[in-house]
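Moderator note: this is an archived Q&A kept for reference. The question asked for a predicted structure of one protein chain; the sequence and the answer are reproduced below.
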Amino acid sequence: MPVSIIRLVSLAVFLTAWGLLAKIGNDPTVLPSPADLIAPLYHEAATGELFEHMGATILRVIAAFCIAMTAGTCLGLIMGTYPQIDRWLDPWLVVFLNLPALVLIVLCYLWIGLTDVAAVAAVALNKIPGVATVLREGARALDPDLKDMARVYRVRRVAVLRHFVLPQLAPYIAGSARSGLAVIWKVVLVVEFLGRSNGIGFRIHLYFQLFDVAMVLVYSLSFIVFMLAVEWLLVQPTEARVRAWRQA
């Protein structure tokens, strides 16, 4: 059975189970059915509120993701390549790996202010250690024979990076990017919940205060659907393409 069909059937089962639970509970203020969300979803989309706040969240996710991947990849490569530097930085890495995201968010807001800079910085700092850890292991796993061969044949550094290093690191980069994206958008919602005036997290906070379960679900599920589309249409095909050379 095609993967797309399996996914559709799985989602249909989920929606059916949700509808049955909502019918059993018979209280839309506690658990509205999927049908109960159609009208508020249409209203938010028609007024443009949904797209405005989703756009703000997406921009923060992209900014934090790019910063985390760039900084984490560079840090991981340095630590994996130079053991002496790794010994010095490893305690720092362990500290930041175990530092709760909530603490980073609060500190960034206190130090920088309630700004987008603080929001993106908090999210990026939360994910950089995870990316660095994965890429450090990738750097340690690089084939030394390929490195020696490149030195013997005096291959240029750019060519070594392109043809020897990056193909070996590609699965590690893809894996950290995939897990990073999944974590980052969740942390972004927390950041918006605590201290921003727009975004999906802000709207969830607003309707949480109003005890409006339907609107909380509308905004939550809207962004989840968007991220599922990114996962299925962009992340997974890219990851498969990156790993294809290993199966050749």
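Archived answer notes: The radius of gyration is 22 Å.
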